[in-house]
Amino acid sequence: xxxxxxxxxxxxxxxxxxxxxxxxxxxxxxxxxxxxxxxxxxxxxxxxxxxxxxxxxxxxxxxxxxxxxxxxxxxxxxxxxxxxxxxxxxxxxxxxxxxxxxxxxxxxxxxxxxxxxxxxxxxxxxxxxxxxxxxxxxxxxxxxxxxxxxxxxxxxxxxxxxxxxxxxxxxxxxxxxxxxxxxxxxxxxxxxxxxxxxxxxxxxxxxxxxxxxxxxxxxxxxxxxxxxxxxxxxxxxxxxxxxxx
Length: 245
What we know:
Layout: E1 7-11, H1 16-27, E2 31-36, H2 39-52, E3 56-60, H3 66-80, E4 85-88, H4 104-132, E5 135-140, H5 144-147, H6 153-173, E6 178-185, H7 213-223, E7 235-238
């Protein structure tokens, strides 16, 4: 199994892509550290993981809270002894507003979660990865960070920052055994749908549909694996041949 003996930490793991990544990694032998603000749904995912046969820790955590992130990582390291893989998936995205009408508080909240949350989680695990000479960090951005989405300038700005952070960090740590990559989904299936193979029609891609949670998870799990041993500093779009709307 690809991840036998590996420990993976996933943020935003209670629904959607985060949940699908957790299931994918568990099926391939990983032990898991799962974070989310929705503890009820996260516990349900934890039970799914246990049925697969992997060990799992679940933590209620707002990734914009650096102190809480550090507490969670310390607890996970005490329990498992290491974190080999980090998937920075937690993010805010549903709000749509024109920049002229957006509040500074909204922008600050998006940056606190979508950018600072990635920074806090990465910093908390990075030293351990460097000491071990091994690590895989996969950040989840968005095509909005590549093209920019109208009425989502705040979201687009945060995801563009994550893509740039990915490329910059990779240049610092790749030669030390820590590979850092980014995945930018296009239209995704509704996260509240528990079927990770569900998709619906979409005019935003030439495939004419949304991407499934499993399809996104498969790419993330590949980048987190040793099969992607010569890939670092990349942003890979998974968007069904996106129409640039």
